[in-house]
Design goal:
Low-confidence stretches of chain B: none
Strand order of the largest sheet of chain B: 2-1-3-4
Shape of chain B: globular
Mean pLDDT of chain A: 95
CATH superfamily of chain B: Glutaredoxin
Number of helices of chain A: 10
CATH architecture of chain B: 3-Layer(aba) Sandwich
Order of helices and strands of chain B: EHEHHHHHHHHEEH
Low-confidence stretches of chain A: none
CATH topology of chain B: Glutaredoxin
Structural class of chain A: alpha+beta
Strand content of chain A: 5-15%
Structural class of chain B: alpha+beta
Strand order of the largest sheet of chain A: 2-1-3-4
Helix content of chain A: 40-55%
Oligomer: heterodimer
Strand content of chain B: 5-15%
Largest interface: A-B, 32 and 34 residues
Order of helices and strands of chain A: EHEHHHHHHHHEEH
Number of strands of chain A: 4
Mean pLDDT of chain B: 95
CATH class of chain A: Alpha Beta
CATH architecture of chain A: 3-Layer(aba) Sandwich
CATH class of chain B: Alpha Beta
Number of domains of chain B: 1
Shape of chain A: globular
CATH topology of chain A: Glutaredoxin
Chain lengths: 226, 225
């Protein structure tokens, strides 16, 4: 069977979003299984919400309650160690993720081979260990755990406040909005016929259908049920 | 692993909601496969939204645009002949589904064995053939297509305007809200210690997990279907 060009799959993500973590891990797991070129695109979810007039689900009280249960169930399903945030308004809204996403954008510009691992460490901090992701020490700790060397960490941290980095983050966020995004995760699959946007971590069967691949559930390497 | 008791599963739904149609058909298809006692609970989605302070997704323009594609993809996935509504604001909001849901509630009281068929025929009208579901004539045609007897149809058409039927629909809607519902479909799985609420037509793998059953996708029995 001749190898065909891999399907480009753009993954727009912000570490403030737990559902985005589920989607991220699944896409990473499927890299050996699907003929895809996975392109990680750090963006700013707060910017998307503002531009589209959308609001986080927790602004509807009963959605917020439901989400706590839904996150725990999904975490078990996806095999990801989620711990609910004790003070969500402070952590997710007041502190937010702008600095984290700027840092990741800087890494994407200057040391892109670390983007995946640093993203994962930042997710672990906010959504698994309940740790800060806004302070200088927090960002550097995450990068260190991701095995970045000192000089690269310093370089990327310094450059995160450059105009170039700010512009890159704005541009990536606008790209997602141009694709029709209103939240995260946003996955854009580039097929021969055109591009298709998917929202959420619960559309994998449909994404697989479009890519003519097989969805084997969140653990493709295990003999698991859907 | 012998489980003697069937798990009670309540589906709260409104025919105005296309995702409810997907959820409904999937659950109906799984009745022979899962050890569950599926209870159909017609509600008034407008009432749930109001109480929860929620708004339909199409109120955010890019969500509305996305939903059109998402509906068609899901329709293909679930094997349901969905057709997008040309004038959604007029059909879903101005005309809405109150009369249809009252009628289904009347059928639930008079002839509960027809609630599944009538619901399906109403979904087909609004979400497949693009037909009306508010006029008395429309409700009559749907019930007839579900093989209800004329005399029963006329009885339900009269009954739907009685206060006790209106109250029953309100009660069903309030029950859903008490379970924490903010939209439709809302599925309640009564297992173990407490009822567990699930929202949407995209949580079947998690629902299956809770029921200790297997989710084999939207068409568990392709041959039978």
């Amino acid at each position: 069977m001749a190898a065909t060009t891999p399907t480009k799959v753009e993954f727009y993500f912000d570490v403030v979003s737990p559902y985005t973590w589920f989607c991220f891990e699944v896409l990473c797991r499927y890299r050996p299984y699907w003929n895809m070129d996975l392109v990680l695109r750090p963006f700013f979810l707060g910017g998307v919400m503002k531009t589209t007039g959308n609001k986080p689900p927790m602004t509807v009280a009963s959605k917020g309650f439901y989400m706590q249960k839904d996150l725990i169930r999904n975490a078990a399903y996806f095999g990801i160690d989620i711990k609910l945030i004790e003070d969500p308004y402070n952590v997710l809204v007041q502190k937010g993720s702008l600095r984290a996403m700027k840092f990741l954008t800087s890494i994407n510009l200057h040391c892109p081979m670390y983007l995946e691992n640093v993203s994962r460490e930042l997710w672990r901090r906010i959504w698994s260990k309940g740790e800060d992701i806004t302070e200088e020490n927090s960002l550097k700790e995450a990068a260190k755990t991701a095995q970045m060397n000192e000089s690269d960490i310093e370089k990327c941290f310094k450059k995160m406040d450059d105009t170039e980095t700010k512009e890159a983050l704005k541009r990536t966020t606008q790209e997602a909005v141009d694709y029709g995004a209103f939240g995260a995760p946003t996955v854009v699959v580039h097929t021969k016929e055109g591009q298709e946007m998917f929202f959420g971590s619960d559309r994998f069967p449909l994404i697989a259908q479009l890519m003519k691949e097989v969805w084997k559930g969140p653990f493709p390497d295990k003999n698991s049920k859907l | 692993m012998a489980a003697l008791m069937r798990t009670k599963v309540e589906l709260f739904y409104d025919v105005v909601s296309p995702y409810s149609w997907f959820g409904f058909e999937a659950l109906c298809r799984y009745r022979p496969h899962w050890k569950m006692d599926l209870i159909l609970r017609p509600v008034f989605l407008g009432g749930i939204m109001k109480e929860a302070g929620n708004r339909p997704p199409m109120m955010v323009p890019s969500k509305g645009l996305y939903m059109q594609k998402d509906l068609l993809r899901n329709a293909a996935y679930f094997g349901i002949p969905l057709k997008l509504i040309e004038d959604p604001f007029h059909v879903m909001i101005e005309k809405g589904s109150l009369r249809a849901q009252r009628f289904i509630t009347a059928v639930a009281h008079e002839r509960p064995e027809y609630i599944e068929g009538v619901s399906r025929e109403l979904w087909k009208r609004i979400w497949s053939t693009g037909e009306d579901i508010v006029e008395t004539e429309s409700l009559h045609i749907a019930a007839k297509a579900a093989n209800m007897e004329d005399s029963d149809i006329l009885k339900c058409l009269k009954l739907m305007n009685d206060s006790n039927i209106k109250q029953a629909l309100i009660k069903s809607t309030e029950d859903a809200i008490e379970y924490g519902a903010f939209g439709a479909p809302t599925v309640i799985v009564h297992s173990k210690d407490q009822p567990e609420m699930f929202f949407g037509s995209d949580r079947f793998p998690l629902i299956a997990q809770m029921l200790n059953e297997e989710w084999k996708g939207p068409l568990p029995d392709p041959i039978k279907n």
